[in-house]
Amino acid sequence: MEEKIDYIKLASNKPKGKRPYFHDDPAVERVLNITMAIAGELAVMRERMDSIERLLEKKGTVTREEIETFVPETKEQEEQRQTWHAEYISRVLRIVQQEQEELENPDKSLEEIANDINEM
Amino acid sequence: MSVRNLPPVYNKIAQHAVFPEMNHDERARYNFLANLNKHLAHVSTGNKVAFENRVEPKFEKEHGRKIASTEELKEAISKDSHYQVWSSLRRSTMEMRQQAGRSIVLRQAAELRDKVKALNEGKDSLILDESVEVPPYLLACDNHIMPGSYHTELIEEDVTPAANYDTGLFVTTAGLLGRYSDGGGKAIVSWVKKTYPDFSPKRILDIGCGMGHNVLPIAKAFPDAEVIGIDTGAPMLRYAHARAMDLGITNVKFMQMDAAQTTFEDESFDWVQSTMFFHETGGKSIYNIMNEVYRVLKPKGLTLHIEQPQYTDDMSLFEKFIRDWDALYNNEPYWSKMHDIEPIDLMKSSGFREEDFMQIGAKAENDLDDGSQKADEPEDHGRSPIWNVFGAIKN
After folding, report:
1. Under CATH, domain B175-393 is a member of which superfamily?
2. In the predicted model, is pLDDT for residue B127 greater than 80?
């Protein structure tokens, strides 16, 4: 068994059992899911900014100018930033990945599964 | 301050040695999701309005009669735009919760495994058995839309299914099960101690124990008892054992076993407990498991099962339908079928006597409840820590 796993892809896997769609057009569902993920990430960023602002306020060491002109200074910093983007995009586009997974491995509906396991 | 109840901030969750490392943004993501869950409970109240004002009148106009079944209700409400947007948001929130939890635990899968291994090494209180098969009802779909469910191992000796569960339960329930997510176990301990003050069980069995969060309060409350938690998911048991070790609870064993066919001797337990377990089994297995409960229970022994609230005759079709939403759309399919079984009939079929049957209500004991929570918040159906408990004394 592999020790190194593609945690970014695996984290966004679809669960077994056909995904329900509630809107008449599945495209609406897809766009809503992407939008909600972005909403979530915006909330995360807002909380991070809140932490930073409160810490800066407390310690008062960083200027706006320093933030505006900052670029990654090491290879490690560059990779950390790009990994963040890769994780971010996978998270936001989760539903597209899951639809592809469903296409590749079609599932039974939960109604069918409920009937199946009622016999198990 | 908000006029609404706010979920506790994520950093209130209890830490232990095998709890996953979490960074700032991972905690923030969970804060967002707990708030989104809370918000959607408010959005859910609109479903009743939409049903009464739009869905029901439209159906009656078209059919010249009232909606007669939950199936008809489902068909009719599924075309309503409010129900559609609430449903898709709720499903999306659960998917995001799984994605968030898995992105935390999968990036540190090997480290978590090694931490668990170090705590479990050389202990005889964790007994795994590779010959135990995952029951077919757990393979049919991934419960709680957890990709890979309780049993899938992505690396050797994986514990990530349990670690993911441990981080996320606090989010799904908005912290209402307490810092250790053990509000169910604590509630049952209080009830048993109050109802049977002289009860001093020597052997206690918890079936479908998962990561052990509800069996630990029982083991702690009865320190002289030998407590055994069984489950079919090896990742859950490894993690449960390491978690218990770190929390200093040493009178509990974790064993890999199918509750429908255990290896325990007849009449060998004073108490057999399950918590939120039966609704995740199957239509035939549930009877096999109850037979096994009866078999291993000593005469005068106690058995109790914490479950989802029962349907009652005075419950409207709408309420039955909305309470069942999680069954189909958060992948807990047997829950939608378990309503057809009366707990008393289930127990009688295994040999328990009608006059020994008991049924009570229970509410989670929450160590985060500081009394500031308002009681008139809308109920988050299927997630609220308010349960039905059924059981019996074996005679």
Report:
1. Vaccinia Virus protein VP39 (3.40.50.150)
2. yes
